[in-house]
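Allow me, if you will, to draw on your knowledge of protein folds for a short while. I have a record of one protein: its chain in single-letter code and its fold written as discrete structure tokens. I should value your view on which stretches of the chain appear to form regular backbone elements. Thank you for your consideration; the sequence and its tokens are set out here:
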Amino acid sequence: MGNLEPAQAATLCLVNQERARNGELPLAPNAQLAQAARRHSEDMVSGDYFAHVSPNGETPLQRVEASGYIPNAGAGYTLGENIAWGTLYLATPRSIVQAWIASPEHLANILDADYRDSAIAIVPAPPPSLASGQAGATYTQEFGVIER
């Protein structure tokens, strides 16, 4: 995965195709959510873990707040996060989205009608202790909506 932007765009496109099949509006790319997603994918690889909450206790909400996505303390919002990792052919956007669709919890995020914004970050490496030395990738997808 030399150029990650097309792979990230393809992943969002596949997610939006699943939303369209289910009568939902497409998710719009959001740069602030991209920052939060990228930080988390990078942290999972460098910290060699796979979880929504980092070993130091940082939560998805804290990552999204740090990105500036939530404009102020009084803003209403809804957030969600999908994560995945895979090796070899299981690390492609299609394989990752298929795995999310097969998982009820991940699919619920993908099809949540409240979400309007999203971002996907891919790091071209899996958490080392999980991959047995194989090449792969780690994905984070952030979902959000700010109630205006």
About this structure: The first strand starts at residue 28 and ends at 29. DSSP finds six helices and four strands in the chain. Residues 4-21 form the longest helix (18 residues). Strands lie at 28-29, 76-87, 117-123, 136-147.
